[in-house]
Amino acid sequence: MAIVKMKKLRVIAMADRREELLRELLRLGCLEISEPDEKLSDPAWSALMQRESSGLSATKVEIGDVNTALAAIKRYAQLKEGVFIKRHPISEKEFLGSGAVEQAQTVSREVGQQLQTLTRLQGEESRLLSRQAGLEPWRALDMPLELQGSDHAVFRLMVCPGSTDMTAVQTALADTAAQMLEISADKQQRYCLLICHKAEEEQALEQLRPFGFSATAFQGLIGTPEENLRQLDGEIAENRKQQEAATAAIVSQAGARDALRVYADRLAAEAAKDQNSERLLTDGTILFFEGWAPAEKLSRVGALLDKLGCAWEASDPAEDEISKVPVQLKNNALTRPLNMVTEMYSLPAYDNVDPNPLMAPFFILFYGIMMADMGYGLLMILASVLVTKKYHPKGTMGHLFSLMGLCGVSTFIMGAVTGGFFGDFLTQVVLLTTGKDFALPALFTPLNDTLMILVGAMCLGFVQIVTGMVISMVQKFKKGQVVDAVWEEITWFVVFAGGGLLALGVTPIVLYVGLAMVVLGPIVTGKGLGKITGIFGSLYNHITGYFGDILSYSRLMALMLAGSVIAQVFNTLGAIPGNIVVFIIISMAGNALNFALNLLGCYVHDLRLQCLEYFGKFYEDGGKPFRPLAINTKFVDIQND
Questions:
Q1: Which of helix, strand or coil describes residue 260?
Q2: Among 214, 201, 192, 191, residue whose Cα is nearest residue 153
Q3: 3-state secondary structure 410-469
Q4: Which H or E run contains 32?
Q5: Torsion of CA 586, 590, 596, 597, to 10 degrees
Q6: Which of 67, 349, 401, 449 sits 20 to 30 Å CA-CA off 561?
Q7: Residue 223: which region, alpha, beta or left (left: phi > 0; alpha: psi -120 to 50)?
Q8: What does the angle CA 385 – CA 388 – CA 392 come to, to the nearest 5 degrees?
């Protein structure tokens, strides 16, 4: 497998065929239109051509409205979706047709209007409830709120802290023609009515100042608090009735959710088309754009462009364009799931190698070694098959479950080799039910053969590191960097071979030759004092580097051992009561926890080995993903007519 070869296209078309051209390219799904920034920075181009306009802004607004409507239907109709969205098949003609568009637009507008009504009503309810809460402490006041006093008296509604001593307040007012009546109280405040002679109002307020009294009023309210509260109760009830009607109107649109979903995917395709439309340059009469297409699909693109009367040319990317070429990985069913790992790290440069087929055997094997349990492997395979068959996930999620299935097979095989099935679950079951000893056959076990597993893990690490060096050497030969390959990879191949021959007692000569090449390399390639310092730098960096990298693979043994021990610990704890039911409950709970931790832990450590120890030997990242103008759906699967 390799990186898909790309062709650069330059296309000229008539401006009046823009919509048809973009629509057909969208259906074709294999041409990426480049941003024209570089062209527009050239005065000669900018004087003749300008960016094409589109309705992208309006489409994005409509996408937001549809997504809001879907979220509202899900919330108020209480529809359950589960973890995954189940895609529904739909024909391309139905998807791109206008039949369901009008219905979806009507539903989207209706739900949007009801949401606006609901939002307004909820705001009004909050204000009514706030006013109700403010009036509630004054309910016992049998006096109109608009009454401020009489010809000779003043009535003031006042509040003070709940800890205020009302006896002390009355004592303070004893020398004034005033009286404080407590209406109600709670933990925070006391609600009072001050009645005093107009001539002594200021004196009374001065006496109350030390107690923290403050005046309050209800502007615009007429009648007693009780009358106002009854009116508010009616307004709140009416408000909630209207909210229920608005909610019911939203719920009534639940049957149109599938139509809204199709429309949401349709709008996403329209947004992609509009976004690419803005990459076109036009003078009002013609259109011009540049783009990239896979070489293997160039005939299909060319046939379409010819059909639409376009003038076009295709060429291989120039040397100075390599960094701009989008990258698409060409993989089979076995290596495609590794796209998730590669994309998480970084795509390779266009002139580098596709890492997926080079990484897949190691990643899948290492994961199985770390998990190493038949029970866990079966769970992974089952989850992969069920989710893939039922929900048909795509993109990263699809790669995740495909990779889980492959790693599940590896985990099951390594579990069979080590005799693990949820740890020693079967051993404990047989012991509890029959009293007899039983153990699954195994070539080796993590607890009894730890040293052997550690050595084997580091040997596998050495194999992967050497594989990375071989890939690097081949790449250098292809680029004509023969000297670099000789003094880098080939030198250390000789050292490794010499070390192996010496360990076997064959001959030390090959090792001496390798060490001589290590010393000679910096002298040949270095300059000045670097010829001497390069020798020590090369020895130190390579010896410590290779040793550290190989030692990192001991994590294969560590995670295998940890997973096995934790499973056996929970099984042992469950077997202590001697009851098979209690054992199964404790064992399954513990194994579920162990499985969840290892599922993620093994992935992270496996990823580290690939991205640091392995990729560091040959991988050049920095590739830009290939993003063609295409229909990418979230809710439906489009079937060809």
A1: helix
A2: 201
A3: HHHHHHHHHCCECCEHHHHHHHHHHCCCCCCCCCCCCCCCHHHHHHHHHHHHHHHHHHHH
A4: strand 32-33
A5: 170
A6: 401
A7: left
A8: 165
Q: Residue 188 — left, alpha, or beta (φ > 0 → left; ψ -120 to 50 → alpha)?
A: alpha
Q: Residue 160 gets which letter from DSSP? A: E
**Degrees, nearest 5: CA angle 413-448-465:** 60
Give the global pTM: 0.79
Is 571:590 a contact under the CB 8 Å cutoff? yes
Instruction: Tell me, letter by letter, the H, E, C secondary structure of 360-393.
Output: HHHHHHHHHHHHCCHHHHHHHHHHHHHHHHHHCC
**Which pLDDT tens digit goes with each residue over 248-294?**
999 999 888 888 888 898 899 899 998 898 888 888 888 999 999 99
pLDDT tens per residue across span 432-466: 888 888 888 889 989 889 999 999 999 999 999 99
Return the amino acid letter for 541: N
Q: Which residues contact 112 (CB under 8 A, 6 or more apart)?
A: 65, 68, 69
Instruction: From residue 573, give the alpha-carbon distance in Å to each of 381, 562, 589.
Output: 28, 17, 11
Residues in contact with 314: Cβ distance below 8 Å, sequence separation at least 6, in sequence order:
7, 8, 9, 293, 298, 302
Q: Which amino acid type is present at position 428?
A: Q
Q: Please, what is the angle between helix 56-76 and helix 101-135, to 10°?
A: 60
Task: Record the tokens describing residue 436, joined without a space.
Answer: 């007899």
Q: What is the largest CA-CA distance in the chain?
A: 124
φ/ψ of residue 221, rounded to 5: -95, 135
Q: Collapsing DSSP states into helix, strand and coil, what is residue 481? A: coil
